[in-house]
Amino acid sequence: MARMRGLDAMLARHMGVADRGRILPENFVEQSGPANTTPLVRNVYPPWVYKLPSSQDFNTEAYDVAIAAAIGATANVLSFQTPPTFVGYIQIVSIYVLSPTAAQDVTWTLRINGAPVPGYDNLLFPPGVANFGVRDYSDTQVRVPNGARVTMTASNGSANAWTIGGKIAGWFHSTVEEQRIYGDL
Fold first, then answer.
1. Which pLDDT value is given to residue 32?
2. Which domains does the chain possess?
């Protein structure tokens, strides 16, 4: 054993400091454990899942929008616009009906710059009797381009008037900051 230490010291003098400890006895068996595990890997989630430190939240909602008692009547429920150099991500979409009945037949559509968002057009609230009805679409992950206008509209499919509402919530941040962290997505 003393001979091994002497040999190790002699080799260490001829090898760089970084190579010390690499000479192992022939009968050495590598053990598993913290020193032999793979290096730490960090997950970096995209900006539509977790906001950047510089992101700003938005939460736009309306509870008291009247839609006329006519089949085909429409109402603008709410709208929001991202700043010109900011990109946004919608995380929550909700639709509301005050005192729905079995005759209620209203559809909601989420729009970006006037165009329906696929998967979020013609959203329905199931007809039924209640004091107040809410349908929530969480974890939406819809990207909103720079300076875009986000709107929610509703269309009445019955001859009854309704009090309706909606909500869109999420965050926005500078496009430059997003590209600095993620590159071109």
1. 60
2. 2-36 (no CATH), 56-182 (2.60.120)
- Written as six digits, the tokens of 44 are 């970096």
According to DSSP, the residues that pair with 156 across neighbouring strands are 106
What's the average model confidence in pLDDT over 126-141? 90
Rounded Cα distance between 175 and 23, Å, is: 52
- Residue corresponding to tokens 């700003």: 56
Question: d(Cα 104, Cα 96) in Å, to the nearest integer?
Answer: 12
The total number of residues shown for the chain amounts to: 185
For residue 149, is it left (φ>0), alpha (ψ between -120 and 50) or beta? beta
What digits encode the pLDDT tens for the residues 7-50? 555 545 555 544 455 565 666 566 666 666 677 777 778 899 88
Task: At 110, list the tokens.
Answer: 């989420």
Give per-residue pLDDT as tens, 61-99: 999 999 999 999 999 999 999 999 999 999 999 999 999
What is the spatial distance between Cα 103 and Cα 169, in angstroms, rounded to a whole number?
29
Please choose, from the candidates 84, 86, 105, 76, the residue with its C-alpha nearest in 3D space to the C-alpha of residue 168. Answer: 76
